[in-house]
Design brief:
The structure is a homodimer. By secondary structure, chain A is α+β, with helices and mostly antiparallel strands. Chain A folds into two domains: 3-114, Jelly Rolls; 128-204, Winged helix-like DNA-binding domain superfamily/Winged helix DNA-binding domain (Arc Repressor Mutant, subunit A). Helix content of chain A is 41%, strand content 27%. In chain A, the strands form three sheets. Chain A has a four-stranded antiparallel β-sheet. In chain A, strand 11 (188-192) and strand 12 (195-198) form a beta hairpin. The structure holds a DNA duplex.
DNA sequence: CGGTCGATTGAACTCGTTCAAAATCCGTGG
DNA sequence: CCACGGATTTTGAACGAGTTCAATCGACCG
């Protein structure tokens, strides 16, 4: 992002501080804003008629969310952590993008990257067993400087077990069991519920994706 | 799409006629072109290390595919049907989009719509049983005038059972069994392998999505 | 009419779910 | 600082939907 784009964005942006549990928007709400995470973690989820819930994504620092074609949000967005979110009025962002083709191009590239990521997720959900899914999830988290400290090898997970389970499309108990397997294999060590010590190299070659 | 955009696109486009089995590109190929289906059906799939295959999408008339961030295609694209495909050199399309912000915006909107569609697919894969998955697949096909004739109620499926199975992330046999269930419930009738008579209203309320 | 390939059916098995119980974590107040 | 209580996670055991593998069926083609 060019400095000029950056300042143009900030000019129409509005920062908000959030705490764990803050609801950014609900599915069905009018889609008035596009959001960007500055710090913290946001959970994007969708509630089904029968009460089940699918977690579609966790958004970390730098990620954009809330792009909805059709005027209404299709999902819920909730902060999991204390953090800071930037948001932009949809129309104003739209104008800005039209006036700055290179900036719009960044968004387009970002969107196609997102599509590839989701394809990866579809493959993961369809073809791999529970342990592999959990490994993939942990690797995804480790990719974020936000919550993984390479020095101490400690991964800090801001989300609950049901969040992880609903993200990977499995039962909460299955996540527990998968973590148990990985711990017995000495690939991870559960310090406490939200802190894992991780042997990253071993975790990596445990995921033959 | 404005007429002017249309002609600008055609100016850099190159039409190709395809027959069933034509390979448009393979995963790993240099991503030189963006494709658009004019008529026919294209299967987008991804091969895994262990020989399994995931079908990621079927692309029908009007659909765009082959957008790859990173210079290489991640997936395979194969024509399933006789048809006509338009393709555009990636760099030239990129230039064109930069010079026409509204046209780029269309692509961006298209991409966000695609993201929503894929989220729907993730939910489908994660939360619903085989019969529901097949119902969703059939409904998706019926949405295409290409292959569903509302007058005769006949759906023409250009893809094989393994294609459907790999699309929904289930075994081929499970697709057969699901079709059997739907036929016993008089919701569909298998005329032959590639032609189904469909009771669309009943099919619709059989999918509580 | 026989042969081949894809689709369907059948039967055993497996992985993940479900439901219930035990263990652990964590905030609160003594 | 430690003990208590509710919530979350983990563990255990039974169950079930879907897979797997093998056999049968059916359509298409020489």
């Amino acid at each position: 992002m060019t400095p000029s784009d950056q300042t143009a964005l900030m000019a129409i942006g509005e920062a908000m501080d959030v705490r764990p549990g803050t609801k950014l928007f609900r599915q069905g709400d009018a889609a008035t804003h596009i959001y960007m995470v500055e710090s913290g973690v946001v959970r994007i989820s969708h509630d089904l008629l029968d009460g089940k819930r699918q977690v579609l994504a966790f958004r970390w620092g730098g990620d954009v969310f809330g792009m909805a074609a059709g005027g209404r949000y299709l999902n819920n967005a909730d902060a999991l952590d204390k953090g800071r979110i930037q948001r932009f009025q949809a129309e104003r962002l739209q104008e800005l993008l039209l006036s700055r083709p290179h900036m719009q191009n960044r968004f387009l590239l970002q969107a196609t990257a997102e599509i590839s990521l989701q394809q990866h997720r579809i493959i993961l959900m369809a073809k791999y067993d529970v342990v592999t899914k959990v490994v993939a999830f942990l690797l995804e988290c480790c990719g974020n400087g936000q919550c993984f400290d390479p020095a101490t090898q400690i991964l800090k997970l801001p989300m609950s077990r049901p969040d992880i389970a609903d993200y990977m499309g499995v039962a909460t108990e299955s996540v527990s069991r998968a973590l148990g397997v990985l711990e017995r294999r000495k690939i991870i060590h559960r310090h406490d519920m939200h802190h894992l010590a991780i042997d990253l190299p071993r975790l990596r070659d445990c995921a033959r994706l």
